[in-house]
């Protein structure tokens, strides 16, 4: 019984295997896009953080905290 099913199983494995390269390439593209998005949003949030820091004049606060004059 197992010997009769072996050719059929091998054919199914071959069919699944033939779809893997394109599927793998698709997931690679998705992963690269996610990495780019993550990098972009990290840069964007860093820019916003620096902008907010400038609005609140935190440099004067740090000078006062260090014991100097603002």
Automatic annotation (TrEMBL):
Positions of region (Disordered): 1-26
Domain of life: Bacteria
The protein's name in its UniProt record: Uncharacterized protein
């Amino acid at each position: 019984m197992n010997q009769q099913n072996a050719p059929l199983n091998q054919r199914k494995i071959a069919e699944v295997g033939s779809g893997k390269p394109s599927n793998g390439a698709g997931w690679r593209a998705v992963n690269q896009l996610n990495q780019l998005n993550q990098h972009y949003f990290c840069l964007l949030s860093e820019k916003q953080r620096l902008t907010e820091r400038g609005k609140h004049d935190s440099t004067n606060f740090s000078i006062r905290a260090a014991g100097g004059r603002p």
